[in-house]
């Protein structure tokens, strides 16, 4: 076996967290920068995680009564202009299609030709184009609610991009619903927040705080935005999903009107909600370690990798026969309502190289099988949530019968570990001095490591937004769970009923 | 019950086939024209069919060793220019992004701003951007083959659009593979053609001819294009899927090079293959009738709709209890490897209206349950492949136990019917006079109804392309199955070894 490196990923999290993140993505072969500015290529292993996320979320959306549909990639510029705050929010960073063909230019190359009468915007989000259709579809209260989701790509021309977390093109789902009453729309907004929290905690093993955004952090055009916020291992916050109560703002801008049961004409109440490939970034930063990616079993493209080890043709025959049998037995086991996902890696590589390959990719369970294991009817098992050296010999039948329970244990363990990190790095803060201290880097050479989440009384006013900006801090949300806890705003002295989560953020 | 209309769709297929097609889409609520030129909105019922298509095809791709990945929406203009035939094929109809933000203009509205150094093309297909990545990934023969598929949206600025069949934006999958040898790439090209034919015939119940395109019908930049061709009910051909052997054209343009086992530097051999939302159009035109959509059960979003019928609250309680029980029993049945998909429609609509709603949407089996059925323990069953009047009383247990077999019978029956139509409207033709006669409309007021497919000896030369153009006919393909049958080209007299399928086409 090749000599095991001290750590598979260099630099470590402690040495340089942002660079560690890029290196984990590279080592696990999740994604790559593309030649198109700000756009990434999602490679098969990264796509496999996103595909599993989509499958689970899609089921959750359907279970809550939503259907999928598909709307155009392009939005006429005039549509975007209809809602004032909305266009303000997106005009500064959007891809604009102005021509519809290419022609030979004066110097031999091609030049854009066929100028469009009206420029088209590559959707940064689809409220305006979907709303235009809803205005046609909704006549009577009987046509409501409309509960539709779409899986799509969107483009926001971000200047500073980072794989999965912030890319010019990203993939997401966007739910868009229209309701007859404010109460229904509020229920929907909150219901989808709960769906996202359920997914984050129970599938991604990523604990989240559900809360309401202060006004300055709202989606452009929304009356209320709620979000789930997670703590990454560098104590920074990641907004992982948002759900917006749009009130009647978009329905008024787009004339989504209906005749009520009483015969009056009313504007519909709308919502929108979305999560994106950013979740893959959150998953990476929540669980991975200095040996590479760690994937929670419920979302892992593969649960178990079988690694046959042999030196002669004779050994090979016996080992492979044993491994084939093991693979079949594992696939016959059920985990999370489906067969256990197994791969066998019989590539002609040195054992150590192969083992590290799968450690770096975060496969939850590795099973090594050599001639001696075949003879004794046992396997050598390594778990991704334990150090690479912690391998254990187990009778093969026991391993197979316990595999689902082991995966559940890994899944739960990852959640508990992440939750503990958040709890250890969160505190209530009641003075400005204490707040500044909390966010001071622990030492000069580790500028990333600061306190974590601060739970602070803050008023939802402009002055607080500005003060936080000066401190290079962001308001994450006002948690919706738990009891009220009135107190005075740290900046303005105003009385508020709940604390707000303040953090550095992605 | 409302009086049944003579036909739910007006006009009928015979009266006006193209308009009938639009009306079926409308009546079944599959899709709608959007405010964005040439782009459609795919509504939930239409999306449900596409979703099922995706699921099956995705499984087939994985079973043949492919993985999914995702590449950028945008292609830098210079990438498109690298392969001469390719750019020639796509430059005339592409969406060009030239700016990356919007600014207030002189007259108050917005204008594009932030001009890009290099225009970006919204992908019409992704050979060039994917090839650029493969060039980075492939160094040695050990890195081959690369077997990747992506599910994506693409844009081709078509002037004349038609829902599903030809739209500016459409959804598709595009497989892109790279191989060390010509033989492997040819095998892949042909393998994916077989996958597409298997899907078309066994899931869509749409018989297809597998064949090779003559040179002038090839994909821009390909050495060989093979396709599946289906006959619609108006006797016209629909190209339903294509698989391209790209030789070394793209690998040379993009430098996808590798070191062989012998140490020499070689260019990779590449393929690409795709099917799109056009398949939904093919499905509609193959099976639907003058009462609306007919969906083959294997792709139907729902297999069975239960329609409770009652007049009083007392009847309602008994009927709904019976229906709930029936729904549970049906869902416990397995069809095509998964539970039977059932909906109950208890909306407050007149019985006839509700029944026709589901007929028009093509649900394979309708079950009506009234108080008398509850008393006798039977149900009233209508099949979408029979006329609306052909309803049958069946004991409920028998219906449930036979439901999977009935769905299979419907699926097979649709295939046989479509196959018979094609056979009845195909013939070998050996003279130019006969060919012209074959494609002459049967009567002046039905310009669409002509002979169908003509199997003709044609040489793969420019002259034939031009002569067919004059006759307003198209060369579909040279079928690859069956024995050779040498003969003289109808237009040039050259000896060719196989007949070519000639047809009017979509």
Automatic annotation (TrEMBL), chains A, B:
Q: Does the keyword Ligase apply?
A: yes
Supply the EC number(s).
6.1.1.15
Q: What is the lineage of its organism?
A: Bacteria, Pseudomonadati, Planctomycetota, Planctomycetia, Pirellulales
Q: What is known of its domains?
A: Consists of three domains: the N-terminal catalytic domain, the anticodon-binding domain and the C-terminal extension.
Q: CDD domains, from UniProt? A: ProRS_core_arch_euk
Q: Does the keyword Protein biosynthesis apply?
A: yes
Which GO molecular function, any one, fits this protein according to its record?
Answer: proline-tRNA ligase activity
Family, per entry: Belongs to the class-II aminoacyl-tRNA synthetase family. ProS type 3 subfamily.
Family annotation (PANTHER family): BIFUNCTIONAL GLUTAMATE_PROLINE--TRNA LIGASE, PROLYL-TRNA SYNTHETASE
Assembly notes = Homodimer.
Q: What class of enzyme is it?
A: ligase
> What's its job?
Catalyzes the attachment of proline to tRNA(Pro) in a two-step reaction: proline is first activated by ATP to form Pro-AMP and then transferred to the acceptor end of tRNA(Pro).
Please identify the protein, giving its name as recorded.
Proline--tRNA ligase
What reaction does this enzyme carry out catalytically?
tRNA(Pro) + L-proline + ATP = L-prolyl-tRNA(Pro) + AMP + diphosphate
The Gene Ontology biological process annotation of the record reads: prolyl-tRNA aminoacylation
Q: What is its main location?
A: cytoplasm
Compartments, record wording: Cytoplasm
Q: Which UniProt keywords apply?
A: Aminoacyl-tRNA synthetase, ATP-binding, Cytoplasm, Ligase, Nucleotide-binding, Protein biosynthesis
Cellular-component GO terms for this entry: aminoacyl-tRNA synthetase multienzyme complex; cytoplasm
Pfam families from the UniProt entry: HGTP_anticodon, tRNA-synt_2b
Q: Which residues form the Aminoacyl-transfer RNA synthetases class-II family profile domain?
A: 46-296
The UniProt entry, under HAMAP family, shows: Pro_tRNA_synth_type3
């Amino acid at each position: 076996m090749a000599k095991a490196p001290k750590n598979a990923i260099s630099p470590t999290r402690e040495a340089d967290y942002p660079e560690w993140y890029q290196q984990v993505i590279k080592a696990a072969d999740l994604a790559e920068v593309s030649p198109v500015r700000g756009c990434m290529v999602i490679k098969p292993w990264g796509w496999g995680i996103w595909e599993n996320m989509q499958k689970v979320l899609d089921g959750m959306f359907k279970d809550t009564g939503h259907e999928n549909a598909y709307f155009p990639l392009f939005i006429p510029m005039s549509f975007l202009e209809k809602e004032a705050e909305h266009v303000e929010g997106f005009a500064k960073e959007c891809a604009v299609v102005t021509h519809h063909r290419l022609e030979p230019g004066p110097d031999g190359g091609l030049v854009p030709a066929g100028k469009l009468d009206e420029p088209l915007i590559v959707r940064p989000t689809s409220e305006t184009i979907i709303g235009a259709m809803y205005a046609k579809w909704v006549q009577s209260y009987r046509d409501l609610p409309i509960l539709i989701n779409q899986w799509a790509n969107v483009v926001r021309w971000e200047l500073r991009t980072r794989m999965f977390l912030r890319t010019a093109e990203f993939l997401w789902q966007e739910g868009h619903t229209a309701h007859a009453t404010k109460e229904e729309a509020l229920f929907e907004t909150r219901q989808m927040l709960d769906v996202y929290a359920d997914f984050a905690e129970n599938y991604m093993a990523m604990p989240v705080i559900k809360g309401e955004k202060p006004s300055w952090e709202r989606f452009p055009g929304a009356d209320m935005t709620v979000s789930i916020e997670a703590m990454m291992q560098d104590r920074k916050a990641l907004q992982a999903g948002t759900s917006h109560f749009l009130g009647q703002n978009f329905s008024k801008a787009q004339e989504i009107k209906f005749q009520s049961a009483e015969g009056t004409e009313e504007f519909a109440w709308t919502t929108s909600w979305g999560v994106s490939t950013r979740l893959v970034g959150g998953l990476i930063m929540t669980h991975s370690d200095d040996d590479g990616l760690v994937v929670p079993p419920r979302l892992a493209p593969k649960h178990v990798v079988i690694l046959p080890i042999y030196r002669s043709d004779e050994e090979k025959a016996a080992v492979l026969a044993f491994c084939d049998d093991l693979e079949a037995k594992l696939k016959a086991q059920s985990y999370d309502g489906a067969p256990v996902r197994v791969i066998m890696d019989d590539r002609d590589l040195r054992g150590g190289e192969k083992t590290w390959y799968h450690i770096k990719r975060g496969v939850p369970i590795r099973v090594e099988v050599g001639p001696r294991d075949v003879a004794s009817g046992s396997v050598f098992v390594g778990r991704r949530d334990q150090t690479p050296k912690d391998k254990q010999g187990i009778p093969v039948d026991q391993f197979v019968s316990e595999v689902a329970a082991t995966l559940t244990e890994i899944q739960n363990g990852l959640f508990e570990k992440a939750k503990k990190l958040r709890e250890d790095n969160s505190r209530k803060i009641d003075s400005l001095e204490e707040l500044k201290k909390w966010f001071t880097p622990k030492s000069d050479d580790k500028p990333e490591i600061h306190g974590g989440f601060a739970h602070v009384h803050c008023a939802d006013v402009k002055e607080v937004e500005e003060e936080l900006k000066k401190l290079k801090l962001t308001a994450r949300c006002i948690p919706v769970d738990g009891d009220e806890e009135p107190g005075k705003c740290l900046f303005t002295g105003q009385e508020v009923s709940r604390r707000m989560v303040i953090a550095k953020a992605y």
